């Protein structure tokens, strides 16, 4: 029924326009005189223009969208240029142009739609630029451009949606963080070394007597054949600054600062020449191995650009059901916006693997450090876990303060 009304509506308007022409012509015929015929001839051009607008196809337009840059990060200014081209230079009095894009693009902007009025006239090509002053992080999809025009009287209004698909991926913003390997001493006297020791099993430097716990593959069989005593290979030890970051994706007002902090730490670690991995815990858990290099950083930033606060369970509950696969020598950084005793108990399971564990409690601007969180900090320290509160806008000193602790 609704579709039938949409078809009949322009037909009804066309009949109304023809009726108005007939009325003015009849009035001029019966009334006569200069005024009545002047009214009729003055009305005819506008009526004919309205008829031409009715038959003019807006599908004649071709739309091209262009961005000023290929990569953006959160907080940048976006300039979008729309170019409209057509074959027939039909005079259009006005046109309302709307760029159809997901609403997430205007999350931090004063505008809610990319909509503007232009005056094409006889031009075959029209360009229009608009700006988004502060881009939000995420994936924003452009689907089409909506065109709307009409005649002088507003009798005929035409609308067309021209498909023009684009994808804009806004990477997370980051700040300069002076990353330093952990060498802090806790209140209870437990020390975390600034480097981690790994055995390079590809290079044996000697042999020693077998000790319980040595791996079967480390046994030096040639020595055993000669002396009939079990001997174990000794390997060269090398230093490692590997870090595993665990991102809590439970919904929080500080989620965007959490993503910014995570991106900043990743960039700082890789810039330092160390290796970093990421475990993103949300509705779908995603793990990235511990690696280094700009290509690996790009993969992590791509994930952080699209990540959403969609975890349905608290981090402590998730950690109870799942384990984290990582090297024993890697330090583990938990990035979260909420800490609890249950979570600290779950995290404590990983400190037994001789890894340095730090919980970064990220807070939005204006949030305070509660007495309960201070008590939890002492509770975490008693189990060899360092709890550090980081505030949005003051991430640069995060590791410097941990080091002095």
From TrEMBL:
The chain crosses the membrane at residues 12-30, 36-56. The keyword Transmembrane helix applies. InterPro entries: DUF58. Residues 207-365 form the DUF58 domain. Keywords: Membrane, Transmembrane, Transmembrane helix. It comes from the Bacteria. It holds the Pfam family DUF58. This is DUF58 domain-containing protein.
């Amino acid at each position: 029924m609704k579709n039938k009304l949409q078809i009949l509506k322009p037909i009804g308007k066309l009949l109304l326009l023809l009726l108005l022409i007939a009325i003015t012509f009849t009035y001029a015929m019966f009334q006569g005189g200069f005024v009545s015929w002047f009214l009729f001839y003055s009305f005819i051009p506008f009526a004919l223009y309205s008829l031409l607008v009715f038959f003019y196809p807006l599908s004649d337009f071709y739309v091209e969208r262009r961005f000023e840059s290929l990569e953006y990060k959160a907080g940048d200014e976006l300039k979008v240029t729309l170019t409209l081209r057509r074959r027939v230079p039909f005079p259009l009095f006005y046109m309302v142009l709307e760029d159809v894009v997901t609403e997430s693009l205007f999350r931090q902007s004063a505008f809610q739609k990319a909509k503007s009025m232009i005056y094409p006239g006889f031009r075959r090509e029209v360009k229009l630029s608009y700006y988004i002053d502060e881009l939000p992080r995420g994936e924003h999809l452009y689907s089409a451009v909506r065109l709307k025009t009409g005649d002088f009287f507003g009798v005929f209004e035409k609308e067309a949606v021209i498909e023009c698909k684009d994808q804009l991926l806004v990477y997370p913003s980051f700040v300069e963080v002076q990353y330093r390997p952990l060498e802090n001493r806790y209140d209870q006297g437990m020390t975390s070394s600034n480097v981690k020791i790994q055995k390079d099993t590809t290079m044996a430097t000697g042999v020693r007597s077998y000790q319980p716990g040595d791996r079967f593959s480390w046994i030096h069989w040639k020595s055993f054949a000669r002396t009939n005593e079990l001997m174990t290979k000794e390997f060269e030890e090398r230093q490692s600054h590997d870090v595993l970051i665990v991102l809590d994706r439970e919904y929080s007002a500080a989620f965007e600062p959490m993503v910014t902090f995570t991106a900043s730490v990743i960039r700082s670690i890789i810039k330092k020449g160390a290796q970093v991995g990421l475990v993103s815990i949300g509705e779908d858990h995603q793990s990235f191995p511990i690696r280094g290099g700009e290509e690996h950083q790009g993969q992590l930033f791509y994930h952080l650009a699209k990540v959403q606060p969609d975890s349905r369970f608290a981090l402590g509950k998730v950690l109870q059901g799942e384990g984290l696969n990582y090297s024993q020598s890697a330090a583990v950084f938990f990035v979260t916006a909420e800490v609890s005793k249950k979570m600290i108990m779950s995290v404590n399971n990983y400190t037994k693997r001789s890894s340095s564990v730090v919980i970064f409690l990220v807070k939005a601007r204006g949030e305070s450090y509660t007495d309960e969180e201070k008590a939890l900090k002492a509770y975490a320290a008693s189990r060899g876990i360092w709890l550090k509160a980081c505030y949005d806008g003051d991430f640069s000193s995060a590791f410097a303060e941990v080091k002095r602790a």
